[in-house]
Amino acid sequence: MTRNLPDPSEPWLTVDLDAIVANYHAIAARGPGAEVAPVVKADAYGTGAAPVARRLWAEGARTFFVARASEGVALRSALGPARPAGIHVLDGCPAGAAPRLLAHDLVPVLNGLDQVEHWSAAAPRGTRLPCALHIDTGLNRLGLRPEEAAALADAPGRLNRLDVGLVLSHLACGGIADHPMNPVQRDRFVEAAALFPEARRSLASSGAAFQTEDYSFDMIRAGISLYGGGPFDAPDPRIRPVATLDAPIVQVRHLRPGETVGYGATYSVDRPLRLAVIALGYADGVLRSFSPGGYGWLAGRRCPLLGRISMDLIAMDVSEVADAAPGQRVEMFGPNLPIDGVARQAGTVSYELLTRIAARVPRVHLGETPE
After folding, report:
1. What is the pLDDT of residues 270-312, one digit of tens each?
2. H or E element: which one contains 316?
């Protein structure tokens, strides 16, 4: 099913929900028996958390991860009472967060002993609150250090008011195939998770799920590869493209040798040239580093970007496209220009490419979108 299309004079981000479903099942195939829990933080990596989560619920997803409590609140509302998903909040339970987490039935991923205390103190008398424990095995970001986890396990009274349903960690180099740090972290995780034998275990993200060794355990937290990014920051035939960013040509003009293009006059014309001006810019989330060196896709051709990307416009060389005209849409990434390749050209990763797309760019969802 295709939603009503937005104004054709503006950029669109088209999201193929059927492709997300295909990627969900491709990730599941990497860990038979493991639950695949979609990570829908940052508005499902910019693709639209509400339609994505509702579609994945229909495919069997029952656990979702977000970063912020506010994202969890929005997701709970979007799923509604008919979809009682487990929603885990990766930021955990900082001071003052417990009432909101309780009110919206959100499960904090506790990242430190202070968060353990905050969440325990929030438990109504005679009850135990669900939670996950995050153990830092080498990323040195959030999480209990292994010795802190051991101290917690040695003092079971500190967990009397908590129901630890999941223990998780995160690989520092999961997106690098067969990096030697990955098995080191895996071994640390196995040792630490054994302190909480009743809890399920989760170590794998998208990249870890596609490693040669098995990192799937009981749950895979599926992120970037749901949304079309390769597990190792490169296009992967097992992962289908999901998001297409395109925008219309506003004007086509002829330039003569000696003229320049864009702010700073950074591109000088050295031959007769046809230039298309595209209705897209950094206010739409396109990185300025896309140009020079980047390209768009028009009429089956890669067309070089020229000069600096400005707030609302991009210039592109269409000398090789004889029928280039206002209104034609130029693909900036999508099935013809995979996001991993475009991200590499821009000096970044597909995660940033997707999550930077601004709210002013309408999202068009293709495929069944349950209400």
Report:
1. 999 999 999 999 999 999 999 988 999 999 999 999 999 999 9
2. strand 314-317
Task: Look at residue 367 and tell me if it is in a domain.
Answer: no
State the total domains in the chain.
2
CA distance 205 to 208: 5
* Catalytic member of 24, 41, 227, 282: 41
The predicted-structure confidence for 168-216, as pLDDT tens digits, reads as follows 999 999 999 889 999 999 999 999 999 999 999 999 999 999 998 889 9
Active-site annotation holds for 45: no
Positive or negative CA dihedral for 1, 249, 49, 170? positive
Each residue of 38-57: b (16+ CB within 10 Å) or e? Answer: bbbbbbbbbbbbbbbbbbbb
Q: Coil, strand or helix: which one is 184?
A: helix
pTM here is: 0.95
Residue 1 resides in a domain: no
Are 108 and 155 part of one and the same domain?
yes
Structure-token match 């960013």, residue found: 245
Q: What phi, psi does 301 have (nearest 5°)?
A: -130, 150
Instruction: Reply yes or no on whether 351 is catalytic.
Output: no
Do 160 and 266 reside in the same domain of the chain?
no
Q: Are residues 88 and 188 in the same domain?
A: yes
Q: How many residues does the chain have?
A: 371
Is there a cis peptide before residue 326, judged by omega within 30 degrees of 0? no
Range of the domain at 178: 17-227
Q: Check 45, 227, 263, 282 and give the catalytic one.
A: 263
User: How far is Cα 91 from Cα 68, in angstroms, rounded to an integer?
Assistant: 6
Q: Which residue has the tokens 């209990």?
A: 144
